[in-house]
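New here. Your pick:
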Amino acid sequence: MKNMIAYCGLDCEKCNAYIATKNNDQALREKTAKEWAELYNSPIQPEHINCEGCRVNGVKMVYCDKMCEIRQCAMKKGMTTCGSCQELEKCQTVGMVISNNAEALKNLRG
Protein backbone atom coordinates (compact mmCIF):
# COMPACT_ATOMS: atom_id res chain seq x y z
CA MET A 1 0.00 0.00 0.00
CA LYS A 2 1.38 3.39 -0.90
CA ASN A 3 2.26 5.80 1.91
CA MET A 4 -0.18 8.44 0.73
CA ILE A 5 -3.21 6.34 1.63
CA ALA A 6 -4.52 7.67 4.95
CA TYR A 7 -5.41 5.43 7.87
CA CYS A 8 -9.06 5.69 6.77
CA GLY A 9 -8.31 4.74 3.16
CA LEU A 10 -8.64 8.18 1.60
CA ASP A 11 -5.92 9.08 -0.89
CA CYS A 12 -3.97 12.05 0.47
CA GLU A 13 -2.63 12.82 -2.99
CA LYS A 14 -6.18 13.81 -4.02
CA CYS A 15 -6.71 16.13 -1.04
CA ASN A 16 -6.64 19.87 -1.74
CA ALA A 17 -4.62 20.53 1.43
CA TYR A 18 -1.93 18.12 0.27
CA ILE A 19 -1.96 19.48 -3.29
CA ALA A 20 -1.78 23.11 -2.10
CA THR A 21 1.12 22.24 0.22
CA LYS A 22 3.11 20.33 -2.38
CA ASN A 23 2.59 23.01 -5.04
CA ASN A 24 2.76 25.97 -2.64
CA ASP A 25 -0.53 27.07 -4.22
CA GLN A 26 -1.93 30.01 -2.26
CA ALA A 27 -5.02 30.31 -4.48
CA LEU A 28 -5.92 26.67 -3.77
CA ARG A 29 -5.35 27.24 -0.04
CA GLU A 30 -7.75 30.19 -0.12
CA LYS A 31 -10.38 28.29 -2.12
CA THR A 32 -10.11 25.20 0.10
CA ALA A 33 -10.23 27.22 3.34
CA LYS A 34 -13.40 28.97 2.16
CA GLU A 35 -15.08 25.70 1.10
CA TRP A 36 -14.12 23.79 4.24
CA ALA A 37 -15.03 26.69 6.56
CA GLU A 38 -18.53 26.68 5.07
CA LEU A 39 -18.83 22.89 4.92
CA TYR A 40 -17.68 22.32 8.51
CA ASN A 41 -18.94 25.62 9.96
CA SER A 42 -15.47 26.23 11.31
CA PRO A 43 -13.04 29.18 11.21
CA ILE A 44 -10.61 27.59 8.73
CA GLN A 45 -8.12 30.06 7.27
CA PRO A 46 -5.80 29.67 4.25
CA GLU A 47 -2.78 29.38 6.57
CA HIS A 48 -4.40 26.25 8.06
CA ILE A 49 -4.34 24.50 4.67
CA ASN A 50 -0.99 22.73 4.92
CA CYS A 51 -0.57 18.95 4.97
CA GLU A 52 2.04 16.48 3.77
CA GLY A 53 -0.09 13.38 4.33
CA CYS A 54 -1.69 11.44 7.15
CA ARG A 55 0.88 8.66 7.55
CA VAL A 56 4.12 10.43 6.68
CA ASN A 57 6.35 12.75 8.70
CA GLY A 58 5.66 16.41 8.17
CA VAL A 59 3.02 19.05 8.68
CA LYS A 60 -0.62 18.01 8.94
CA MET A 61 -3.96 19.75 9.11
CA VAL A 62 -4.85 20.39 12.78
CA TYR A 63 -7.93 18.17 12.50
CA CYS A 64 -6.00 15.29 10.98
CA ASP A 65 -3.11 15.59 13.41
CA LYS A 66 -4.94 16.14 16.70
CA MET A 67 -8.64 15.39 16.33
CA CYS A 68 -9.17 12.58 13.83
CA GLU A 69 -10.46 9.60 15.83
CA ILE A 70 -9.62 7.23 12.98
CA ARG A 71 -5.96 8.25 12.88
CA GLN A 72 -5.65 8.19 16.67
CA CYS A 73 -7.19 4.71 16.89
CA ALA A 74 -5.00 3.21 14.16
CA MET A 75 -1.84 4.72 15.66
CA LYS A 76 -2.79 3.47 19.15
CA LYS A 77 -3.31 -0.04 17.75
CA GLY A 78 -0.06 0.15 15.76
CA MET A 79 -1.91 -0.38 12.47
CA THR A 80 -0.50 0.69 9.11
CA THR A 81 -4.07 1.57 8.11
CA CYS A 82 -7.54 0.53 9.21
CA GLY A 83 -7.27 -2.16 6.52
CA SER A 84 -5.04 -4.10 8.92
CA CYS A 85 -7.70 -4.13 11.62
CA GLN A 86 -9.91 -7.18 12.12
CA GLU A 87 -12.78 -4.85 13.07
CA LEU A 88 -12.75 -2.93 9.75
CA GLU A 89 -16.12 -4.15 8.47
CA LYS A 90 -18.00 -3.39 11.70
CA CYS A 91 -16.07 -0.34 12.94
CA GLN A 92 -18.28 2.70 13.39
CA THR A 93 -15.30 5.06 13.57
CA VAL A 94 -13.92 4.36 10.08
CA GLY A 95 -17.40 3.37 8.90
CA MET A 96 -18.35 7.00 8.38
CA VAL A 97 -15.68 7.22 5.68
CA ILE A 98 -15.89 3.82 4.01
CA SER A 99 -19.69 3.80 3.87
CA ASN A 100 -19.59 6.95 1.73
CA ASN A 101 -16.43 6.32 -0.24
CA ALA A 102 -16.01 3.06 -2.16
CA GLU A 103 -12.48 4.07 -3.20
CA ALA A 104 -11.39 4.36 0.45
CA LEU A 105 -12.64 0.84 1.22
CA LYS A 106 -10.93 -0.46 -1.92
CA ASN A 107 -7.67 1.22 -0.84
CA LEU A 108 -7.93 -0.38 2.60
CA ARG A 109 -8.54 -3.82 1.16
CA GLY A 110 -5.48 -3.24 -1.04
The chain has six helices and no strands.
